[in-house]
Amino acid sequence: MEINEGVRMHVEWEINKFKDPTDILSKLLKQGASLESIMQQFPEAFLGKETFLANVGLNEGLQELIDLICGIGTPVKWDNTNAYLGVGDSSTAADPTQTGLLGTNKLYKAMDATYPQKSGQTAEWRSTFGSGDANFAWNEFTVSNANSDTGKNLNRKVEDKGTKASGETWTLSLKITFS
């Protein structure tokens, strides 16, 4: 039996889209309501779900992760206080040397209540973008430990997921499973 050494990360992104002109769903989701409960209570508001895989780990985030593991310096965690999911409109290919979102239009949103969450070896971050948030093309995605490009971005994914419009609420979640 051959044993392969290494830590693997399986990455899954998910966007759930809702009609929400009054931001009622946005408020409930930010308070930690489950997607399932929102879909059951407001089935007519659900516009769809997209799941997409993989990303590029960014050097700055991986180095910060190593500092956290080793207790070196004063690294910042990707926890409920500091983690932000970011979206932007750049379609520039992801590269490990990048340090955040590259788009002209971009927005980092704080975690919904109770996020991030852990189940087994999977960490999940979730942010809700309400009616007035990030109404531009969603082409790039990241998780950062600050609400701007000054934070350490763990990863970056580039994939066209459409243009968010005013009157819609979109949730973005990132799951990373370590094995």
Please characterize this protein's 3D structure.
It is a single chain. The chain has a five-stranded antiparallel β-sheet with strand order 2-1-10-7-6. The protein has a five-stranded antiparallel β-sheet with strand order 3-9-8-4-5. The chain has one domain (9-178). It is α+β, with helices and mostly antiparallel strands and 179 residues long. The model has no long low-confidence stretch (mean pLDDT 96). The protein has three helices and ten strands. Helix content is 15%, strand content 35%.
The number of E-state strands comes to 10
Amino-to-carboxy terminus distance = 18 Å
Low-confidence stretches are: none
- Determine the strand fraction and express it as a percent band: 25-35%
- Average pLDDT works out at 96
Number of helices: 3
Write the layout of secondary structure elements.
Elements: E1 9-19, H1 24-30, H2 35-41, E2 46-53, E3 56-57, H3 59-70, E4 84-88, E5 106-110, E6 117-119, E7 122-129, E8 140-144, E9 155-158, E10 168-178
Would you summarize the structure shown here?
With 179 residues, the protein is of the alpha+beta class.
What characteristics describe this protein?
globular, 35% strand, 3 helices, 5-stranded antiparallel sheet, single chain, alpha+beta, 179 residues
